[in-house]
Write a structure and sequence with these properties.
Length: 577
């Protein structure tokens, strides 16, 4: 597999030498397929050439056009920008500038285009977390209508929407698709499989805690395991039982909006997001209008489950993580487990997988290059019930703005489909490990490579994956609301406020934003319509009467019976389903 993946650098050089004609022909396509794709495709070579011919023909009216695309800087998008964009230009004659910038900068530029109407970019690769924003503001082309209308002639007949595993994430309550996922990664549980299966360590754990060391199913077991490993010495290194980060920084917001509260058990049952209360604690009415965030309006952002989630985060960071973790942000903390002294991490993004199997990760790799670690489903908190989402999945998605001229949107749509096409998706997924297509996940090359990837392939082939999803449509304005989280939870992380005080302040500010949206009327019939405030007991009774869950009353005992499962047993159970 390493031999196959090395072709990318050569392809960049080769493609850079291709001169795009007025409109291209199959020579450029065949050169690309030979140099870069080979057998790493869910299509046969004949089918690949048929798909490339379709792109050539569909692109002819736009030959010579220059289009601008922007995405955040991750490995998958680097590959698109450096390899696939030049290939597309050579094959179609449409020149693509694919810019790579920070995630926050992508959102800022998208907001600027929404506010000014100036066409800054012809296509955004924008997280599907903004689906509630896009649906309500009506400033993004809904792709369902676009593919049947002004985009019909430039929609690939082999696009196969049903093959995209995250298409529900980008579908609004009106049944329309607003974005097309082109990369996805989840946050999962990460652990040192070699330590968890070491007979001496296993015996020590069982003697101390009275049950078998294994993948924790609930937070009580995770806490026991964190306590057990913290302070031990393994292979001459002081070990910690947990890893996280705590700096008051925008990345701290992602740590919590990316479904941490749902893992604890706040919100309601429902996939991809809780109904009527989602994992942010925002309640909507039957019409889809946000009606509250605080428990006084029927929300759950400051309810017992949410406060429990924040308190556990604070306790574990203080007791079981390296002392320097308190001052780290997301990017600084991400590489730490690869250094070899972390036993487990409850909130680990699979986007780090490529780094965990590459150079610099020798401390967590066997001599044959296979990982000493594994990933598994995240454990859940005491308020969680079956049917709730269990974690977050990032879904960077093609987004076409209404303010982009039709011909530029059509040309950009061709590029968006190209970088998600069945011809290229298997190879792209080997580079970035961010799966979006079922046909790619099931490709035999990933069966071959799965032992190197620590459970990533097994997870994406498992029935468990449906419990991981992005932020949903209850959030009416993601950019405005998301920025509130890191500031308030940062107050709790720094000790300036208690967990309850931080979540009280957060829900109040979320409702203040929603009240302004309601007063402005900018989101039409789906915009906020805040409930009258009632007692907490009133909303608990309403939930019980309606057969829903949120907000839940506080539990007398938040330490449930710890439960673990053997990793190999878990994998076998997936295979049996």
């Amino acid at each position: 597999m390493r031999r196959i993946l090395m072709s990318s650098t050569a392809a960049i050089v080769f493609l850079g030498q291709l001169a795009a004609p007025a409109w291209a022909d199959m020579e450029a396509a065949r050169a690309f397929l030979d140099a870069e794709i080979g057998e790493l495709s869910s299509l046969t070579r004949e089918e690949q050439e048929e798909e490339m011919q379709w792109f050539i023909d569909a692109a002819q009216p736009f030959a010579g056009m220059d289009i601008r695309v922007v995405s955040e800087t991750i490995t998958t998008h680097e590959y698109e920008s450096q390899v696939l964009a030049p290939a597309f230009s050579a094959i179609t004659g449409i020149q693509v500038s694919h810019d790579l910038i920070g995630e926050g900068d992508v959102v800022e530029r998208l907001q600027s285009q929404m506010q000014t109407g100036e066409n800054l970019y012809d296509m955004y690769v924008n997280d599907s977390d903004l689906i509630g924003t896009h649906w309500r503001y009506d400033q993004v082309r809904n792709l369902t209508d676009f593919m049947e209308g002004e985009g019909a002639d430039v929609t690939n007949p082999n696009l196969d929407i049903d093959d995209f595993v995250g298409i529900s994430f980008t579908t609004a309550p009106d049944g329309k698709i607003y974005q097309l996922p082109i990369q996805q990664f989840a946050n999962l549980y990460w652990f040192r499989y070699d330590w968890f299966t070491d007979p001496e360590i296993m015996a020590d754990f069982e003697a101390e805690y009275g049950y078998e060391l294994g993948v924790p199913v609930n937070w009580s077991a995770y806490e026991d395991i964190a306590e057990f490993f913290t302070g031990r010495e393994i292979d001459g290194n002081a070990v910690y039982g947990h890893m996280d980060y705590g700096r008051k920084d925008p990345s701290l917001g992602w740590r919590f909006t990316d479904a941490w509260l749902s893992m604890a058990g706040n919100g309601d049952v429902g996939l991809p997001n809780g109904v009527p209360v989602d994992e942010w604690g925002i309640r909507v009415n039957d019409a889809g209008q946000p009606v509250g965030s605080c428990v006084a309006r029927g929300g759950d952002t400051n309810g017992p489950a949410s406060v429990y989630a924040i308190q556990k985060y604070l306790d574990w960071l203080s007791a079981y993580a390296p002392p320097e973790a308190q001052g780290m942000n997301f990017s600084e903390s991400g590489p730490v487990p690869a250094q070899g002294n972390i036993a487990q991490q409850i909130f680990w993004y699979t986007t780090f997988t490529a780094d965990m199997v590459g150079e610099g990760a020798q401390a967590v790799l066997n001599e044959d290059g296979t990982p000493k670690w594994r990933m598994a489903p995240s454990p859940h908190g005491v308020y969680w019930v079956d049917g709730m989402k269990l974690g977050y999945q990032d879904a960077g998605s093609v987004t076409l703005m209404q303010s982009t001229p039709v011909d530029r949107a059509q040309a950009a749509w061709l590029y968006g489909q190209f970088i998600a096409s069945k011809t290229v998706d298997v190879k792209k997924s080997h580079v970035g490990l961010t799966f979006v297509r079922e046909s790619t996940i099931q490709h035999e090359s990933f069966t071959e490579r799965s032992p190197e990837l620590g459970g990533l392939v097994e997870f994406y082939r498992s029935p468990a994956r449906v419990q991981w999803s992005p932020t949903g449509t209850n959030v009416p304005d993601y950019p405005r609301l998301a920025q509130l989280w890191w500031q308030h939870i940062g107050d709790a992380s720094s000790g300036e406020r208690t967990a309850q005080e931080a979540m009280d302040a957060l829900c109040a500010e979320q409702e203040a934003v929603m009240a302004r949206l309601e007063a402005a009327g900018v989101q039409g019939e789906y915009g906020p319509l805040l409930n009258e405030e009632q007692s907490f007991e009133y909303w608990v009774e309403q939930a019980q009467a309606n057969g829903t869950i949120a907000p839940q009353p506080a539990k007398e005992n938040e330490d449930e019976e710890p439960l673990t499962i053997g990793y190999d047993e878990l994998i076998q159970s997936w295979a049996a389903e």
